[in-house]
Structures are given as structure tokens and as C-alpha cells.
């Protein structure tokens, strides 16, 4: 999962030194999976081509949504996002919030999320990330 996330991040053309900064940040440890909703998308051959992780609280947080670069644009991201919305809704959350990579913000906007603020990057001084929100009908 961690390797897929890094490949997906690299899809946006980030320089190698940025990707190296994110390597540990993007590594999923077992305790980051336990107790949270983690779902995997597989290809017809059973290969993992994406996953999402939802933190169940109110509002719910889409902590991860990564797609294998070869599958970007194929609809896998939309399916994963729609599934994540269902997970958040079924947990009783009033909204799903996302701290998005700036390159992914347009995708989340197409999914109906709106920018509600900005969050400073914990790894790159001066960089901000859009905080987005999708209200959920209960």
C-alpha cells in the first residue's frame, strides 16, 4: 500500500527529493489501519490498483485515496471516492473532509467537495494544502 501511494504521488511529477521527504509520511503502519476503514480496489487479475482509508469520526476524514498511475483516469478513483463517501455516511458522519494534494483538488471538486481552508504542510515550509469538505446527507 505504501509503495502504491508513493507511485501515485510521483504521477504528479514531484522531484525525487520531495518524494523522499514523503516516503515515511506515506508509509502505512499496522496501527494506522487497525480501527479505521481501509478498502482496496483490485483489477480483474486481483492486483491492487488503489485504496482508500477513512477515519471514522464527525466529520469523517478521507486520510488516503491512492490509485496506481496506470489506472488514473479509468474511473477507479471515482469508485474509491464514492465508496469512501458511503463508509463515512454509514458511520453517521455529517461530512467527509479531505486535506488534498493540490494536484488532486480538482478531482475532489468534481466529486462535489468544496475548499474550506488551507493547511500548512508539515514537511515543506511555506507549502499549503487545500482542506476540502463534502457535506453528507444522513
| SSE run | HHEEEHEHEE
Total count of strands: 6
Please give the radius of gyration in angstroms.
14 Å
What profile does the largest beta sheet have?
A: 6 strands, mixed
Widest beta sheet: strand line-up: 1-2-3-4-6-5
Fraction of residues in helix: 25-40%
CATH topology: Aminopeptidase
Structure description:
Strands 1-2-3-4-6-5 form a 6-stranded mixed β-sheet. The protein has one domain (29-135): Gcn5-related N-acetyltransferase (GNAT) (Aminopeptidase). The model has no long low-confidence stretch (mean pLDDT 88). Helix 1 packs antiparallel against helix 2. The longest helix has 15 residues, at 76-90. With 138 residues, the chain is α+β, with helices and mostly antiparallel strands. Helices cover 29% and strands 30% of the residues. It has 4 helices and 6 strands; from the N terminus they run ααβββαβαββ.
List keywords for this structure.
138 residues; globular; 6-stranded mixed beta sheet; 29% helix; 4 helices; alpha+beta; Aminopeptidase
Write the SSE topology.
Layout lengths: L1 H9 L5 H10 L11 E6 L5 E8 L4 E8 L8 H15 L4 E5 L5 H6 L3 E7 L7 E8 L3
Parallel strand pairs: 3-4
Antiparallel strand pairs: 1-2, 2-3, 4-6, 5-6
Amino acid at each position: 500500500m505504501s509503495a502504491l501511494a508513493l507511485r501515485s504521488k510521483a504521477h504528479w511529477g514531484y522531484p525525487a527529493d520531495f518524494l523522499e521527504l514523503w516516503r515515511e509520511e506515506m508509509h502505512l503502519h499496522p496501527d494506522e489501519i487497525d480501527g479505521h476503514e481501509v478498502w482496496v480496489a483490485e483489477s480483474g487479475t486481483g492486483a491492487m490498483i488503489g485504496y482508500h482509508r477513512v477515519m471514522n469520526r464527525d466529520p469523517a476524514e478521507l486520510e488516503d485515496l491512492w490509485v496506481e498511475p496506470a489506472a488514473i483516469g479509468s474511473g477507479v478513483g471515482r469508485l474509491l471516492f464514492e465508496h469512501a463517501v458511503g463508509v463515512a455516511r454509514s458511520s453517521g458522519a455529517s461530512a467527509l473532509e479531505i486535506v488534498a494534494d493540490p494536484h488532486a483538488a480538482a478531482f475532489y471538486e468534481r466529486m462535489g467537495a468544496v475548499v474550506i481552508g488551507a493547511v500548512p504542510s508539515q514537511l515543506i515550509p511555506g507549502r499549503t494544502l487545500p482542506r476540502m469538505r463534502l457535506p453528507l446527507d444522513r
